[in-house]
Specification:
- By secondary structure, the protein is α+β, with helices and mostly antiparallel strands.
- It is 31% helix and 21% strand.
- The chain contains 7 helices and 9 strands.
- The strands form 2 sheets. The protein has a 6-stranded antiparallel sheet, with helices on both faces.
- α2 links the parallel β2 and β3.
- The longest helix is centred in the middle third of the chain and has 19 residues.
- The chain starts with a helix and ends with a helix.
Length: 239
């Protein structure tokens, strides 16, 4: 999250767009920016399960980062509306998924729900990516100071049902109904670099044939500074 916000800062200064793909070193529960979490989750159970917790700079509902791929886009706002930027990123995601052999589409029904304890992948909202009506990609966007950050999660396997076992008095088993996964669609588990290469190829095809890799050294110092904000439990459990 610190890296994403550092790249948001960079977009304001340089007017450059950056598309990133990453995975998580440890299972991590991420909470939406305005999601109420206090008195909803059992922090002792979370610690004993070896799960980290972070609060995202963007909105939305809780999701578990582990058997999934996270994408991140930071760019200057310019004259693009929120809807236009969502649609542009969706085109990249759809093109990249098609390169993997995944026939996804944009959900047309379903209203955006207020942040609450229900996991992010329980059902799709309008504009999110689905396969046969089942949510595959969950996304959220933050606009701040002339730039935006959009990031989202693409499920490789479905372990989102584990979130309910981390909640106070709401332990249950099984997957969140309705979630789609790359593994179930492809009948195999794709490698992380396979997914990232397909998405980067989509960026080059649709946006910039000359797109270059950003050296992590260029943003590392800023990432470490901004990461401190997200390590602060007062921020994580502020609501």
């Amino acid at each position: 999250m610190g890296r994403d916000v550092a790249l948001l800062d960079r977009a304001r200064k340089t007017r450059e767009a950056v598309f990133s793909i990453y995975e998580w070193m440890r299972p991590t529960l991420s909470l939406g920016r305005n999601q109420i979490a206090r008195d909803q989750y059992d922090r002792d159970v979370i610690r004993s399960a070896g799960v980290d917790v972070v609060r995202r700079p963007t909105g939305g509902r809780a999701l578990l980062h582990y058997h999934e791929v996270t994408y991140s886009v930071t760019a200057p706002v310019g004259s693009t509306s929120l809807r236009e930027s969502y649609e542009g990123i969706n085109r990249i995601l759809l093109n990249g998924l098609a390169r993997l052999g995944v026939d996804a589409s944009v959900a047309t029904g379903g209203a955006m729900e207020a942040p609450g304890p229900v996991p992010c992948f329980s059902d799709p909202a309008a504009g999110e990516l689905v396969v046969n009506g089942r949510k595959l990609v969950g996304s959220a966007q933050l606009r701040d100071g002339g730039a935006f950050l959009q990031h989202g999660s693409i499920l490789i396997e479905d372990d989102q049902g584990f979130i309910s076992q981390l909640m106070l008095g709401r332990a249950s088993n099984g997957s969140v109904p309705g979630a789609a996964t790359l593994s179930s669609i492809l009948a195999r588990k794709p490698r992380i670099n396979e997914v990232s290469n397909a998405l980067f190829d989509a960026v080059r095809h649709l946006e910039d044939q000359e797109a270059e890799h950003l050296s992590e050294d260029e943003v590392r110092a800023d990432c470490l500074v901004r990461a401190r904000e997200f390590e602060n439990e007062l921020w994580t459990w502020r609501r």
